[in-house]
Amino acid sequence: MIKVRTPTILVNFKTYAEGTGKQALELAKAAEKVSLETGVYMGLAPQLVDIAPIAHAVSIPIFAQHIDSISPGAYTGHVLPESVKEAGAIGTLINHSERRLTLAEIDSIISKTRELGLVAVVCGNNPEVSAATAVLNPDVIAIEPPELIGTRIACSKAKPEVVTGTVRLVRRVNSDVVILCGAGITTGDDVAAALRLGADGILVASGVVKAKSPYKVLLDFAETLARQ
Amino acid sequence: MIKVRTPTILVNFKTYAEGTGKQALELAKAAEKVSLETGVYMGLAPQLVDIAPIAHAVSIPIFAQHIDSISPGAYTGHVLPESVKEAGAIGTLINHSERRLTLAEIDSIISKTRELGLVAVVCGNNPEVSAATAVLNPDVIAIEPPELIGTRIACSKAKPEVVTGTVRLVRRVNSDVVILCGAGITTGDDVAAALRLGADGILVASGVVKAKSPYKVLLDFAETLARQ
Amino acid sequence: MIKVRTPTILVNFKTYAEGTGKQALELAKAAEKVSLETGVYMGLAPQLVDIAPIAHAVSIPIFAQHIDSISPGAYTGHVLPESVKEAGAIGTLINHSERRLTLAEIDSIISKTRELGLVAVVCGNNPEVSAATAVLNPDVIAIEPPELIGTRIACSKAKPEVVTGTVRLVRRVNSDVVILCGAGITTGDDVAAALRLGADGILVASGVVKAKSPYKVLLDFAETLARQ
Amino acid sequence: MIKVRTPTILVNFKTYAEGTGKQALELAKAAEKVSLETGVYMGLAPQLVDIAPIAHAVSIPIFAQHIDSISPGAYTGHVLPESVKEAGAIGTLINHSERRLTLAEIDSIISKTRELGLVAVVCGNNPEVSAATAVLNPDVIAIEPPELIGTRIACSKAKPEVVTGTVRLVRRVNSDVVILCGAGITTGDDVAAALRLGADGILVASGVVKAKSPYKVLLDFAETLARQ
Q1: Spatial distance between the Cα atoms of A81 and A101, rounded to a whole number of angstroms
Q2: Disulfide check for C154: which of B196, C81, C190, D16 has CB 3.0–4.6 Å away?
Q3: At what angle do helices B48-57 and A48-57 cross, to 10 degrees?
Q4: Where are the alpha helices (DSSP H) in A39-182?
């Protein structure tokens, strides 16, 4: 059930210029086009200010890049989980390497997502950390070795042992969680390698957001996934 | 010149339920109504996800509650200054007591706002801290003793020396900056007291956002201000 | 093997006045006396500046309250793991509720302790978080519900399900780790309750440090432990 | 008065291997030798665990590298100002670029140092930030452009405008504070340049700590200072 709600390609727009405002909207439409053409479930994680406009403009699921471990109240400048849901997000990234959280916060935010019916995508920087988060029962775990993030060296090819190690350690404590593989993914081949190593899908950022044609890159990814 | 761009009532929506999503939009419309009826310059600081919808719906200026000290790039889960500008904000709160920043970040964010033409509203928790921020030349300084935030005990009445002390210390190093007074402001009387002590306007949150009728409270504030 | 190196009573001096400087030294001597008289393995976690003097003055094992995830280098104001070892500590608390760490830091610090031969005592605020840390293979896990810390309401009596839940969830992923129970422990009875629920020992702070006679309280604890 | 208590050479040991434990003690003795031979007032900022042993072993003043904005209480893993004083420190670095603090913390820690009679040495990363801290009346301000820290490119030679700008902006708001210049200082010539630009002394780290002969480097510095 949960799995049906989880994307097999999740695009993190980060705070790239190409992933902000109008450019974010165009990127979202390109992704929607690929998703409709191929039937591959694709999610988008734009910046907070872009969630509402993008959620109104496209039919594919939107994720926040981060939410805070708070309830409604006096928390100026923080991200209320309820606010991203009302804005149209169906889930959120948690603990991305560029926005690390305390373990107690990760636990508390996963509980929040459960209460609110949001999909929790927790990021881990290595197999051990990923397995530790698996104990907390998120919907999705995304493994991304930080040293490969933003490079064009695919985790699934350069460090296959990180993917297989994550799958093995995570499965020991959690048989249901969806596992995404990220960092350096730029071609359909990288995607195919990730799937062969046991990943259920991919988390991607610069490889799509900063591509000359995000449409073509995503189509390559989606066709690879559709063939599996 | 700058002063014309700075509001004399700035409403911080925080992450209150009454200041989120649809309720935030209604609140913004009530504020716009008061502003149009009285001619008092009013700014609104809703949550990040609500900036775009509110900026489209109302004609009064919108502020972010926080931006990060970053440029476009790989900063998942952070707030890109450019993104809030493109979403329709004309300025931002900086260093609110509920979102404190390092001194180096405050300095760097003020520089960012200058580059982007955003209005910088820096918050201080006491006269000394406020005077220290004045050296960095923000557009607006808002003094809020944290122990009175969220109470119904107005800073301008319970701690007049905090307001006068801030005005005195800030003016020593900066004669131009607009000074707002906040914390516990709930009535026109509190506003009048703030102005008498040398403040140029007020920063308000729960006193408006959680009021039975935000319209009536803001009208009371604005009429007091218009009378000065 | 590792178990032999882990204390069954670990006294956290925090930054209490009664646990600083000369008073810390007296406290350490009282603890050593109890340990020698009863044969119960007792560890002490004084403040950083007090590690060297206390390690020289007493024969029982000393722990740091925190170390940073760093190697020798340019990290002004941080705590180098190597420095606490050279000063005489044999281990360290990690992720105490009053000094929470990111999950990636917890993982990295545990690896550091392994390299340096230090004993890693990771704190968790609830059973789920404790079980997540168990995946990372520390030597000791200390469960402390933060709402009971500093009270005189013993975790082992007021929230037995927290202790049993921790033991159950931790044991699912890690059969070796030593489990300590903390928060609100002030009497031998509280200690006995903790052991009955499956804990291997206790983590204690104000119950000892702020007691009229730390010696008597520790003796009560140690005799209870020795009877098991 | 205050000036007499402030060193003209302050050596930050950071967390370098060469500045830890036994090596820290040797370094401290070399510095003491230079200070006694030249009469130049020299301060040392070793790691927290090394404060007590070094303060006992040498007669020159010892500083902490960081203290927290806390009073005695339940703050596991934090640095109690009272604890470094009792251990033998006479002052502390505050807000070093490698340990940045919120503006409210800087203010609160300076107040703490005043209460306890400790010397407050606040670090700034540029002239504007340094001038902002000057409003808070610390005893000493140390300017260090972070991009030069740890290099062998002296701030006083490569960026003279940073030193003169700091002196100018700081003096506008504070005529008493002692100004140190840091980052990249490795020779007596660098020291002389700093003094010519208006600095009262220097803050140094790797240039001394990682030198083949810290004694010779410090002697070169001190003789330059003594000649002024």
Answers
A1: 15
A2: C190
A3: 60
A4: 48-57, 81-86, 103-116, 127-134, 155-158, 160-173
CB atoms under 10 Å from CB of A8, counted, come to: 22
Write out pLDDT tens, residues C54-86. Answer: 999 999 999 999 999 999 999 999 999 999 999
d(CA D61, CA C206): 33
CB-nearest to D103 from B132, B172, B173 is: B132
CB contact under 8 A, C77 and D84: no
Question: Which residue do the tokens 């722990």 mark?
Answer: C63
Residue A94: which of A123, A116, A135 has the closest Cα? A123
- Quickly count helices (H) and strands (E) in chain B: 11, 8
DSSP state of B14: T
3-state secondary structure of C10: strand
A7-66: pLDDT as tens digits: 689 999 999 999 999 999 999 999 999 999 999 999 999 999 999 999 999 999 999 999
Q: Interface partners of C (3+ CB pairs, < 8 Å)?
A: A, D
Question: What tens digit of pLDDT does each residue of D24-80 get?
Answer: 999 999 999 999 999 999 999 999 999 999 999 999 999 999 999 999 999 999 999
User: What residue type is assigned to position C189 of the chain?
Assistant: D
Residues 6+ apart with CB under 8 A from C16: C205, C206, C209, C210, D72, D73, D74
* Per-residue DSSP letter, A122: E
The stretches in chain B having pLDDT less than 50 are 1-4
- The answer to whether the Cβ–Cβ distance between C66 and D82 falls below 8 Å is no
**DSSP label at B118?**
P
Provide the number of CB pairs (under 8 Å) joining chain A to chain B: 143
Token reading at A203: 């988390």
Dihedral over Cα of D105, D107, D113, D115: its sign: negative
Cα–Cα distance between C120 and B155 in angstroms, integer? 48
**The pLDDT value given to residue C3:** 47
**ipTM of the complex, rounded to two decimals:** 0.94
Distance from CA of B79 to the nearest CA of A (A): 8
Q: Are C84 and A82 in contact (CB under 8 A)?
A: no
**Consecutive H or E run containing C3:** helix C2-5
Chain D neighbours (≥3 Cβ pairs under 8 A) are B, C
What number of helices (H) and strands (E) belong to chain A? 11, 8
Give the architecture (CATH level 2) of B2-227. Alpha-Beta Barrel (3.20)
How close, in Å, is residue C123 to chain A by CA atoms? 10
Q: Does the distance separating the beta carbons of A101 and C102 come in below 8 Å?
A: yes
**Annotated catalytic residue C96:** yes
> Domain limits of chain B?
2-227
Average pLDDT, rounded, for chain C: 93
